[in-house]
Design a protein that fits this description.
Chain lengths: 204, 352
């Protein structure tokens, strides 16, 4: 298992380094790119623990969709770097307080997990490489946690509808394309052949 | 691959590297000729002759182009973000080839038989957008940037419907492992997923799914009629404007490797992979069966590549809002309904 250990340390160092770069790097686009690297190596760590389904989900959902939209937005921002550097001292107390809070939370959670306080009796599953964890996850999600799972789905649906309602507005003066009427239009609806007498033309 | 796990690690390493190199070199060399074939089909539709100077029938044209690209000077714009600018073509090149690891070429011929093969393919093809969007941004120029943004929106949109189409196939075969999907379709043309994968009634759903996958694959690989990221009449060449020489070559090879990968995916998901259209009277573990399987797979992939080339030659380019409409308002609801129908059939149709 030395190979696993080597792979773990490489991926872990990349993840932590990329995470550090996200907050220290100056260019916001570079920060998002480092965030994607962190996601990617976290997916690698998932593979090492034998949960390849979660790893692929992390890549498809977070790296393939969420981070693309992140990048999309950050690229279009017109960032003023001088303004960005200003006010560092103003934000330092509140930012530092938040960082300390999160640090303490992480420490407490880790202590709880290490002393099996919060997760007492829940032994981690042993990685055998043979069991299909897609089936295991699906089985649990759709039997034991059906209601919670569907509730999570509804929350997402509400969020989606909310976003659409907030941004969708029909302006009366904007001409829109109606593809159905375009496709169903026939020649006789659009063209009329009219006899034009010489010297007189067509009268409306 | 499992039989080698007990052998010494250096043998395992040697075999892994050998397999990987065999796949990469095989795909690269076939890409050279497929590129030539693409140009020939395009020329044939336009009643031109196409490349016919280098080598017999112009077959060596791609290699001549290769040397032309490699020997030219790499030009990097002064305002470009140099590391990202050079990383972008590398990413799109590497990701296009990484995805080939899970493709079963013939019975037993697969580098990594991952049990989430379909998700792996989906993940790698969704990562492919980064090469384009990074290249567009790092060029520090308006046309490439617009091309990159268009590409990002387009690929994210069509991935959704591709995902749902993949779910129908997964529901039919009951596995995400690509070799399982192929073996499930064995036994002749009527067992292929496009004709319902053994459930004859489902061909009503699966034939439209195949067509939608083909169209979504065109959009996903930025091929005409959905090549808006590089629409030459609007954006000069889109995200590739500032690229020259080898970085451009990497972009182009990556793009074509992705196209052939999509052809291989259609073949595996809907047309039985390496399965011969009629049951063969040969034992399944013989070399002859493997070679016939490989040949069948290659013929199917080339057929779909010709279809991609034909679409490029004969279909006019979409407008961007039409493209978005097709993806979100037509393909997404249709594929969602198809997932429901296939799932209902699997539960209530007595197929389980």
């Amino acid at each position: 298992m030395t190979l696993m250990a080597i792979a773990f340390y490489i991926l872990a160092i990349i993840t932590c380094g990329a995470g550090l770069m996200v907050v220290t790097v100056k260019n916001p686009v570079h920060a998002v790119l480092f965030l994607i690297l962190a996601f990617f190596s976290a997916a690698g760590l998932f593979v090492l623990t034998g949960s390849e389904f979660l790893a692929m989900l992390l890549i498809v959902v977070y790296v393939g969709a969420v981070a693309v939209l992140f990048l999309f937005v950050v690229m279009m921002l017109d960032v003023d770097f001088i303004k960005l550097r200003q006010g560092f001292a103003n934000y330092l107390p509140i930012g530092g307080a938040l960082a300390l809070l999160i640090l303490f939370e992480l420490i407490f959670v880790n202590i709880a997990v290490a002393s099996k306080g919060a997760a007492a009796g829940n032994q981690p599953q042993v990685f055998t490489g043979q069991d299909q964890n897609i089936k295991a996850i699906g089985h649990v999600l759709y039997t034991q946690y059906t209601y919670l799972f569907e509730m999570a789905g509804f929350v997402l649906l509400v969020a989606m509808i909310g976003a659409i309602v907030l941004t969708l507005r029909h302006r009366a003066y904007v001409k829109r394309q109606d593809i159905f009427s375009q496709v169903t239009r026939r020649r006789k609806d659009a063209v009329a052949i009219v006899k034009a007498p010489t010297g007189e033309g067509i009268k409306e | 691959m499992d039989s080698f796990s007990s052998s010494p690690w250096w043998l395992w390493l040697l075999i892994c590297v050998g397999e990987t190199l065999a796949v990469i070199v095989g795909v690269m060399v076939s890409l050279a000729f497929l590129l030539w074939g693409d140009r020939k089909v395009w020329a044939g539709v336009q009643m031109r002759k196409g490349p016919n100077v280098v080598g017999p029938f112009g077959l060596m044209q791609s290699f001549a182009d290769f040397f032309k690209f490699v020997l030219k000077e790499v030009i990097i714009p002064a305002g470009a973000d140099k590391p990202v600018f050079l990383l972008a073509p590398l990413i799109s090149f590497v990701l296009a080839f990484v995805a080939w690891a899970v493709i079963p070429f013939a019975p037993g011929w697969v580098v990594a038989d991952v049990n989430v093969g379909i998700l792996y393919l989906l993940g790698m093809s969704s990562l492919g957008v980064y090469g384009i969007i990074m290249g567009g941004w790092a060029s520090n120029s308006k046309y490439p940037f617009l091309g990159g943004l268009r590409s990002a929106a387009q690929m994210v949109s069509y991935e959704v419907s591709i995902g749902f189409i993949l779910v129908t196939v997964i529901l039919l075969t009951g596995s995400m492992r690509l070799t399982d999907i192929v073996t499930h379709q064995q036994g002749g043309i009527w067992n292929w997923n496009v004709f319902g994968g053994g459930h004859k009634l489902l061909f009503v759903v699966m034939i439209p799914m195949m067509v939608m996958f083909y169209i979504s694959a065109l959009a996903e690989t930025n091929r005409p009629p959905f090549d808006l990221p590089e629409a030459e009449s609007e954006l000069v060449a889109g995200y590739q404007v500032e690229y020259s020489s080898t970085p451009y070559l990497l972009f182009m090879i990556g793009e074509y490797a992705n196209i052939v990968l999509m052809c291989a995916m259609i073949t595996i998901l809907f047309f039985g992979g390496w399965d011969f259209p009629v049951p063969l009277p040969i034992k399944h573990d013989t070399l002859a069966f493997t070679l016939i399987g490989l040949f069948t797979f290659i013929v199917k992939v080339v057929f779909w590549f010709v279809m991609f080339a034909m679409a490029k030659a004969i279909v006019p380019r979409y407008r961007y809002d039409q493209l978005m409409r097709l993806g979100w308002k037509v393909f997404l609801p249709l594929s969602l309904v198809a997932v429901l129908v296939v799932a209902a059939y699997r539960v209530y149709g007595g197929a389980l």
